[in-house]
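Supplementary notes for students who missed Thursday's class. We covered one full example, reproduced here. Read the sequence, then the structure, then the short commentary at the end.
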Amino acid sequence: MFVREIYTMVMRFLLLLFAVYVAAADEEPFIGVNIGRDLSDMPHPTQVVALLKAQQIRHVRLYDADEAMLIALAKTGIQVAVSVPNEEILAIGQSNTTAAKWVSRNIVAHYPATNITTICVGSDVLTTLPNAAKVLVSALKFIHSALVASNLDRQIKVSTPFSSSMILDSFPPSQAFFNRSLNTILVPMLDFLQSTGSHLMLNIYPYYDYMQSNGVIPLEYALFKPLPPNKEAIDSNTLLHYSNVFDAVVDAAYFAMSFLNYTNIPVVVTETGWPSKGDSNEPDATVENANTYNSNLIKHVLNVTGTPKHPGIGVSTYIYELYNEDTKAGPLSEKNWGLFDANGVPVYVLQLTGSGGVLANDTTNQTYCIAKDGADPKMLQAGIDWACGPGKVDCSPLLQGEPCYEPDNVVAHANYAFDTYYHQMGKSPQSCDFNDMATISTTDPSHGSCVFPGRLDKNSTFPNVTLSSMNSTNSDSSACNIHRGELGIRSLLMVMVLLMWGVALL
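Structure (token representation):
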């Protein structure tokens, strides 16, 4: 009898481990955008959604639960984080009934047509609203209880975004700790996040860290620019090397949580970005710097680079923000964090392809690698086979039924395979050769729904870049991803073997 009870307990643990593994395997880091509405001419929700779809933006965070916006997002598949505005927290945190009504009106009424995945209860509450901070944990619990009552607690997570300023002594990260005056709120909050499988949400602004450092933080370090090893910041306790502010702050949050004995709560960055324009005392708020920061940020997240403390574990991040908000109070920079103006015109075109750290901000030199006229079809096919194999090009768009299958001929397929490889290799002339079967062209070979990488460079803010193609310019990171996949398969096989072994003992 005792053996059977032990077996039952072990099986439950293994099944739980298996479930956690499957859930983790399905989660890839993402880039999303925040959508503020402090515009004198705010686009209609249908226009906002049209822009999101055109830019292939699949994750958004709203600062409220605007009904028109939620209706416009319905049936798009876009994953939505909605927010309880700060001014409503006090009422919700003091009344379970008020929280239930809020969830019924703003969540249940729209789900699942609108793919709501997260509820952000306020923003920066602990550092800006001391009265509401006292009931913040109650507000989280009441909102979560309402989700439980509607059987939505597994589909929708509840958390609250924090300002990174509540992390004190943030460098070196290993010495970081939360403002101890907040511990009476933070500890039960972390208990809640851990027990519900939610995330620690963090707003990180390297721009302000840089501006307030009085020259201590180099601009390159704030912008994700590549640094030689001798210029990287080193944590003297862990000997971990930090090449950017973003990673250092994320790891500071992990260390601060571990200082309070919480080691399994993942971090999601709910706000980060860089302004494209500022006042005279903000000389580094420029289009070039904004482009550099956000372009490098996107590559960093989608490459699943992780942080020095957690390499290979990506940090999902929302960029602040979709639109420039011209009615925002404060300095000029406050009005210029957007990727687009109110008409949907890009403030700058993000540079997301090519090798190396900082990509050129010149968007006029658009080139493509295509098959030469009269090239031997057999040689072209050999080039396709190489590009889609050892060249690590994602050639799935060339499969039957996919966007680039038609026209079904070797020249069209070679154009796509060659051009994709060319862009993965940073548009170096040597990468457009293919045994002298290819040539560089300024004519866009895209057609219909088959969009080539060069077109994505020019017209798309968030191109549909696969993780494999993002990693193809860095053999080390590709090997890391393959290794992580092998480890995952081995773990899964081990669980299955243990389960079968347990059955055999019965």
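Commentary. The two ends are 11 Å apart (CA to CA). The CA atoms of residues 30 and 251 lie 18 Å apart. If anything here is unclear, bring it to office hours.
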